[in-house]
Design brief:
- The structure is a single chain.
- The chain is of the alpha+beta class.
- The chain has one domain.
- The protein is about 20% helix and about 40% strand.
- The chain has four helices and eleven strands; from the N terminus they run H-E-H-E-H-E-E-H-E-E-E-E-E-E-E.
- It starts with 15 loop residues before the first helix and ends with a strand.
- About 40% of the residues are buried.
Length: about 260
């Protein structure tokens, strides 16, 4: 269940700012990090994800990241407050797809199809350079509104340009905490103050994209009780059935 990693922050050789100036439609790169506050190997990976999210170092691309906290470490002295069995099951699906004997943390997966070796900077750079040139299905998140409180109801309109889609795909909506932190009291990280980015609170299928067709849909969900709406981000992504390749993604911070 554990991967010992030495995180090397990726500094891409070509300036991201220059690339974005010449490529207005940045390619989304969807990065999932399966992690746990109960795992001593995970804080460096959490920090790596935060840096990727903040610095956007991949030329011509937008890194859309998610921290997905699994619950199988919760028996080891510390119950991760952000963990869920649904995210453990999502990782288990990947483990079966990749032919792994068991899931492990930290595990980073790009576009639903490639595992990053977080101690191998050259492999990470190679993967990012490859996926930054991929053709993705455009996803647009329109204006997001919220109404009521305790809890508030979020509304968003989503447009997907699916004419180029050769296969159907599932549409997922994700509500994630933009920033989260914990003072860990017990377990392998006992005494540490941990910070996280894009922590998944809710992930669910919200529609189905048919091949060769556009999709327009309205998404609504109740926000987690007690959560500051300005500390949330909405992520929408397309993934082939049976949790296959990610074909498109978009992200909007609700506080911006």
């Amino acid at each position: 269940m554990r991967a010992i990693v030495l995180i090397v922050f990726i500094a891409m050789e070509v300036g991201a700012t220059q690339a974005q100036e010449t490529n207005h439609a940045s390619v989304p790169i969807f990065i999932e990090l399966f992690t746990s506050e109960g795992c001593s190997s995970c804080p460096p990976a959490d920090s790596w994800l935060e840096k990727i999210d903040a610095s956007q170092p991949i030329p011509g691309a937008e890194a859309i990241v998610l921290s997905e906290h699994v619950d199988y470490w919760n028996h080891d002295g510390w119950k991760d407050p952000y963990s869920s069995s649904a995210l453990t099951e999502r990782q288990n699906n990947y483990a079966r797809e990749f032919g792994l004997s068991s899931p492990y943390t930290p595990q980073a997966i790009v576009d639903g199809q490639t595992e990053l070796h977080l101690n191998d900077s050259q492999q990470t750079i190679s993967v990012f350079q490859k996926v930054a040139t991929a053709t993705m299905i455009p996803v647009t998140i329109g204006p997001v509104t919220m109404e009521g409180n305790g809890p508030a109801l979020l509304h968003a309109h989503i447009e997907i340009q699916g004419q180029s889609a050769k296969l159907g795909s599932d549409v997922y909506g994700v509500i994630a905490l933009d920033h989260a932190e914990s003072q860990v009291l017990r377990g392998e990280n006992g005494g540490k103050h941990l910070t996280h980015v894009a922590v998944v609170e809710e992930i669910r299928k919200i529609g189905k994209l048919q091949k060769g067709r556009d999709l327009s849909l309205d998404f609504q969900t109740k926000l987690p009780s007690g959560v500051d709406p300005h500390n949330l981000r909405l992520v929408v992504f397309l993934q082939q059935s049976d949790q296959g390749k990610v074909l498109g993604a978009a992200m909007k911070k609700l506080g911006s």
